[in-house]
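[09:14] KT: can someone run the structure on this one? pasting the chain below
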Amino acid sequence: MGNILNETILVVFLVIQKAWEVAQAPFKNFLMMGFMMWMAGSTVHLFSIGITFSALWQPISALQSIGKGMQAFLAK
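[09:31] RB: done, structure tokens below
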């Protein structure tokens, strides 16, 4: 009985830990994009235009996929 309970607690802990990692992923991406924009500088070049477009597109894309990321954890 105790062994089954320990395994259940471990599975619940691992699911919560993975859900927390999924929830934090957009914030980590935000920090990375901030660093990339800082490295791109203030000049207008092809690289800085691409970084700016990516910095604008990624948050929109992340907001659209929030439900998909958490859907797997709601089923468990």
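[09:33] KT: thanks! The chain has a mean pLDDT of 81.
[09:34] RB: yep, looked fine to me
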